[in-house]
Amino acid sequence: MLLSSAATGAAPRVPLTAGASQRIAIVRAGVALIWAAAFVIAVGDEIPRTGSHVTFAVSALLVLYPLIDVVASLAEARRAANPSIRVLRANAAIGLLAIVALGATAFGADAGAVLVAFGGWAVVSGAIQLGVAIRRRHAGGRELPMILSGGLSAVVGVGFIAASHANDAHLANLGGYAAFGAVLYLLWAARSRAARRHEL
How far apart are the first and last CA of the chain? Predict the structure, then answer.
């Protein structure tokens, strides 16, 4: 999940256009919703076994999903100040590792291994997001959507890892994970925009 500079409590390193962080979050959410729809279509109605190979289309989409976070984090990092810039770059690096792990498992292993790789990424990125959002909320930020996003990401990630030991790999659930996360980003952007208007 993406960590925005607003979620990390960053002071702008360069002057920001109005609502730049919110626009990045909205674009990120829109792309994630498109990805979720494409992923569910690619998976189809047939539920693969955890030991089954993953189709090329599903594998390609799995590799692309963390790239959304990588691009969004780097876009935010260009505008953020220390120490937030380090968190954003670390998040981008974690996303790059997720791309490698998902590529190795989706193209070279099976559906069960994909669930482990995706779940591990969800746990790590969600835990980071949760910690940052809680810290920001203590500083007076309106970060409830990001707290929910990070906490649910970590919990659902554990669920994905646990599901890798089942007979069936419900890979379409990954699309639901992405869609729900996108909705939370849209909610965060809406709340942040309303707060900005109230402060003006």
Answer: 30
| 13 CB neighbour count, 10 Å cutoff | 15
Q: Which residues pair with 168 in a beta bridge?
A: 49
Q: Give the domain ranges of the chain.
A: 20-199
Joined together, the tokens standing for residue 1 give 């999940």
Q: What percent of the chain has pLDDT over 70?
A: 84
pLDDT tens digit sequence for 134-145: 887 765 567 888
Cα separation, 104 vs 85, in Å, equals 29
Q: Is the pLDDT of residue 95 over 50?
A: yes
- Residue count (the chain): 200
Q: What share of the chain is helix, strand, coil (3-state, %, to 5)?
A: 75, 0, 25
Classify burial at 22, counting beta carbons within 10 Å of its beta carbon; exposed 0-12, middle 13-18, buried 19 or more. buried
Task: Report whether 4 contacts 21 (CB < 8 A).
Answer: yes
